[in-house]
Amino acid sequence: MNTTTRTTILGAAGLAVAALTLTQVAPASADGIGVSDAKDLKHGVDLRSVTVDHGAKNVVVTTTHTDLVESFTSGSSGAVFLDTDPDDAGPEYVFVGGFFVGTDYNLLTTDGFATSAWGEPVEGSYRMKVDYEKETVRFRISRAVLGDPDEVRVAVRVAGTKPNGKDTKVDWLGAPRSFTDWVASS
């Protein structure tokens, strides 16, 4: 992928990301959780649920949406912030990507939520797959890439452009600027 494409994709994903505030939640005892989200956005990217599975080899975050479309005119994109260190408040990684055909994705280091805090792309095994039939986006990250954390928690924010091309609509999982519970590895 050329630098111009990566910059364009990261720039579009950057529009989908705003600052999050931090919350402290007791660790979850299971290796996976599911969190539902109200229908609160009149756009195909409307976030309906998020599951986090923290397996022995991978962390898999799956988001479910309402009426995902393949067209670039949707401007649909998202960011999954991953907090892997309970002793260091905030995310250490952000997985960003577009949710329409022809876009790309990347896992980046981060020292916070602002796009200016995003670091370099992470080397290793990770993948994002959009399924328009099931209306899901699946983010799979090797635990080794994340430093084999004992537990993780995520914050999810998605956005999409209205047909007029001017208005960007945003949806958070639950309350804005919040994380899921901690999920221990299995």
Automatic annotation (TrEMBL):
Keywords in UniProt for this one?
Signal
Q: Which InterPro entries match?
A: TAT_signal (IPR006311)
Q: Where is the signal peptide?
A: 1-30
The name this protein carries in UniProt is Uncharacterized protein
Query: What taxonomic lineage is listed for the species of origin?
Result: Bacteria, Bacillati, Actinomycetota, Actinomycetes, Propionibacteriales
